[in-house]
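Good day; I would like, with your permission, to put a structural problem before you. I would ask you to consider whether the tokens describe a fold that such a sequence might reasonably adopt. The full record is reproduced below for your convenience:
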Amino acid sequence: MRGLLVFVLMINVCNGLLTSRINRMSSSSSNYLSKEVLWFNQTLDHFSPYDHRKFQQRYYEYLDDFRIPDGPIFLVICGEAACGGISNDYISVLAKKFGAAVVTLEHRYYGKSSPFKTLTTENLKFLSSKQALFDLAAFRQFYQESLNLKLNRANVENPWFVFGISYAGALSAWFRLKFPHLTCGSLASSGVVHAILNFTEYDQQIGKSAGPECKAVLQEVTRLVELRLTSDGEALKTIFGASALNVDGDFLYFLADAAAVAFQYGDPDKLCTPMTNAKKAGEDLVGAYAKYVNEYYVGSFGVNIQSYTQEYLKKTTLSDSESGDRLWWFQVCTEVAFFQVAPANDSIRSSKIDIGYHLDLCKNVFGEGVYPVIDATNLYYGGTDIAGSQIVFTNGSQDPWRHASKQNSSPGMPSYIVTCQNCGHGSDLRGCPQSHLVPEGNSKNCSSPDAVNKVRQQMIEQIDLWLSQCHAAGRSSM
């Protein structure tokens, strides 16, 4: 899920889909409600009656707005990246409104929550969404019991509500599906609940979001790049600062991600304005695109070009400086795929980025026999036919990932599309654009703040209703 994840970037909202390459965020303390690290002793394998190994899992709590003793507890799921704290996004506004405590659990294997000292393919066998959901359930029980001890009471359940963006948004929906007794409801923001092998819709949405003029320019760039790659590939890669990308497919994927990120995170003008201006002025389009990539994707987003090499993804040593790219690719290659392949017609990205490229990458990085079991994943969770209840789905109109989410409402599961020119991935919680964290998810910079605020009001009404029902029933869920 490359195009979805450069997550240590500037967006670490503990979620981010979906390739750790496109989901990063600044570590400034002002971006967080809390960065104080706490630890939970977690079970390694929730499905074995014989394996009793444990590992340390990192979590955070924020209690400044908590209405003691019966306020709700908001469980914010961290996704496919290191979790540096509780982000100061729109959830902080919701916490004040509802008098909620906020807790966040780092996803197993990512960041500081690795069960093993090396990330060999064998050691990654406990990395899955299924294990992660049981992690959340076990943590939720632990935290409730810990809170009861602090308040000198027993057998009391606060109302819980679960939040997540991107892959974490899918986990949020799946948590309500699998553990309805442990939460009053869930918000799945850009929640990618539908596993897809050939995710051609991703590139198609990029084209729609770009508009005809910008799309045509980007397609021309791709054609020119493919020609130069054949005639003088070394010189071409040099102007992008990407000489390390020896595999042409890796280089083309890097260029495709660089374009996609502008639309995914609500910054289309950063790409389309300079590119269409360069076309009108008769300038070298490849040079103009290289300038955008170097200044915006690599410069502003801080993307590590080395992370696009398959040799980098093969690294199995733990390092504070390394991202979760290998980990996310393992989940992609075994469970959810989201292979961003070029559509057969009218594609922006190179046609060389096909299913074969992705499967070869999985085999090269993780070894023989690694293949995504997409059908099994959708059978287990239901895909967009998920049969849960009390789940709110939200998606940005320009976000390519919305095509892996639930976009149509069904009983007990309202779905809302936040429609505006720069409404991308997680705009309902992050604001616009998301290339830098917007404090409290302020919507003022969205091209249509009213559209964002309308969806937020609908979210609030659902959260209020379901929490009220929990309070009335005197238990944590309905």
Confidence is low (pLDDT under 50) at residues 4-27. The longest strand covers residues 54-62.
